[in-house]
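User: Quick sanity check before I run a bigger batch. Here is a single chain. Can you write out its predicted 3D structure?
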Amino acid sequence: MAFKDHFSGIADAYAAARPEYPDTLFDALAAEAPPESLVWEPGAGSGQATRGLAARFTHVHATDPSAAQLAQHWAHAGAADVSLAVEPAESTALGDHSVQLVAVAQALHWFDRPRFFAECERVLAPGGVLAAWGYQDFDPPAGLEAAVAGFRVRIAPHWPAERALVDARYAGFEWPFPAIDAPSLWLESRWPLPHFLRYLASLSATARCAEATGEDPVARHAPAIAAAWGDPEAVKPIRWPLFLHLRRRPA
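Assistant: Done. Predicted structure follows.
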């Protein structure tokens, strides 16, 4: 099945630069699903969420339609508790009612949701949980607001339409199961300037802007950002609002 592939061409940047999810997120999932769970992680990409899932559950089946993304997955080094497969979110080889947790990290907005939700109904065991989360645009470090604003204005016309679903925190989706309470969370990192610039390069709008205009927006705005940053090795805090939806299939 064709899919909207915004990340295969920047798979190495995505793997190197995306932030790590907080332990509090995975602790919230572990409170809703037993440790012996089989977890399906569709849209796993290069595995930013897989590590936290594998640390808490017996096995994670991590899938993505992009072979280039999965090629960057850390589990290729050998992880007995993780299996990888090039599969779309709308169709997995997992058996009926075989999964206790479906975990979707920053990816649900790319899926054909009616088909994906139908696949969740097929693979989730009674009492199983569907968890989907995402993070919105970052809060820049103090003193970087003006420099970052220029970059944001530059890439704004090039965001895929699905980005608005993240900005809306997945509001209005026709979820297949009843909601259960989810905590309010933040994603936080502390990076030097080179890592921050790699993160900006990993955004889908950055790649689309460069393709449309022939100019790398990170390279264009890096001097202003660097001037505001100061010592490039100085570590600065970056925060993202993190939202989580939890839905449980009736037992």
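Strands lie at 38-42, 59-64, 82-86, 99-105, 124-135, 179-180, 185-191, 236-248.

User: Great, the batch can go ahead then.
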